[in-house]
Design a protein that fits this description.
By secondary structure, this protein is mostly helical. Helices cover about 70% and strands about 0% of the residues.
């Protein structure tokens, strides 16, 4: 019964398609489409890539961080104010949690896992950057 119904529906569709006929585009259809594409390409505005932080800015940031690290390592104390000497911090620093935190041991499996995670993430960043540079060529 289903096959008879499908056959009737198929015959109906064939007849409907023959009545409608096949539309064919005009002779100049391709030229008209290509002309519109060329017009739309001429009106687009090209946006040049400008990084948020310039090269000089990155050099300044690197210099500032390097100067801060050199100052901290060679000067010793950054300030004479002892931030952890107040009564509120003494409770936290002298708690059982901090004493036990120094005794924590991390298995080699976890260390290897984080090492490989860092390795693969850095590889992925390089490959994705290369992929997007190829995909979106900058002019």
């Amino acid at each position: 019964m289903e096959t008879k119904r499908d056959s009737e529906f198929d015959d109906y569709l064939k007849q409907a398609i023959q009545e409608v006929g096949i539309d064919s585009p005009s002779v100049n259809f391709t030229d008209g489409v290509m002309g519109k594409i060329k017009l739309s390409q001429n009106t687009t505005k090209v946006i040049l890539y400008r990084p948020l932080i310039s090269s000089a800015g990155w050099i300044g940031i690197a210099f500032g961080v390097l100067a801060f690290l050199i100052f901290v390592f060679f000067e010793g104390k950054v300030s004479s104010i002892e931030y952890f000497s107040g009564p509120k911090w003494d409770i936290l620093m002298n708690s059982n949690f901090w004493q036990r935190a120094t005794e924590w041991r991390i298995s080699k499996t976890v260390i290897y896992g984080f090492a490989f995670l860092a390795l693969f993430m850095s590889i992925q960043v390089v490959l994705l950057k290369h992929h997007f540079d190829k995909r979106y060529k900058l002019r």
